[in-house]
Each structure stands twice: as structure tokens, then as C-alpha cells.
Request: fold
Amino acid sequence: MDKLDKDQIINLLPHREPMLLIDELTNIKKLHSATAIVYVKKDSFFVQGHFPENPVMPGVLIVEAFGQAAAALTAHGLDKSTYENKLVFLMGVDKARFRNPVIPDCKLELNIEAIRSHGRVWKYKGEAFVDKKKMADAQWSATIVDRK
Reply:
């Protein structure tokens, strides 16, 4: 399967509205890379307070979307019995750069790649684009933990 829709993502991740940020996962290469789609809307939950007269998607939410995309890629690629009753937790963020503001009413594309894994710890990198213009990039690490 080369694409996951929102319902399929919901089955992989514990996130729910309003914190489930990714709408699709496409171009999936098992446990290697994918593109996540985030439809940033004028009625997104952060617009009311960040900043009402000039809304932008907060950088921390872009990083959160990177993390959700990586978690979905990993969960989708692992054998279901391996991932059952597990969660993916963000461990650290490195080299995050926010190059241009992400304005509501756009399609944010997150190209992510798993750089390496060692046991339950994974390292990823990603770049975020709107209309092929780079908005942000980062590297981050995550771990797979038992669900309580």
C-alpha cells in the first residue's frame, strides 16, 4: 500500500482531534520514507490564538507533524504483532529550522526519512514544503515504548 488516509492513520496512532495533524501518508517506502500531507486550514485550532490577525502554523506543530508522520511510517512498516500495544514517543529534536511561515489555507507536505534504527530507537530527518517552497526542516529521534 502506497498511501494511508486519515482513518488508516487513526488506526496506527493514538492522536485524536485536534492534535492529529497529518491527513495522509503517501509515497510510502516501508520503514524508509514517506510524504505526509497536512491540510492547514483557516479554522485549524491554533489560528484563533496564533496570531488571529496574521495566523501562522506554530513551528512546534510542524515538528509535531514530523513526529506523527514518522510514527505512522514506523507503525505501518512493522509487523502488527510487533507494534501492538506500543507507542512511539519523541525523544529529541535536532537542527530544526523554520525558513518560511506556514500560512493557513495550504497543503503542507512533509518529506520524511528514517535515517537509522537501533533496537527501539529511531532517527529521522524531514523537510516541509508548501508549493515546493521549503518551509522547515529538522532531524529528530523517537523510541517505541510499551503502551500502558
Observations:
- The chain has a mean pLDDT of 94.
- The longest helix spans residues 59-77.
- The first strand starts at residue 24 and ends at 29.
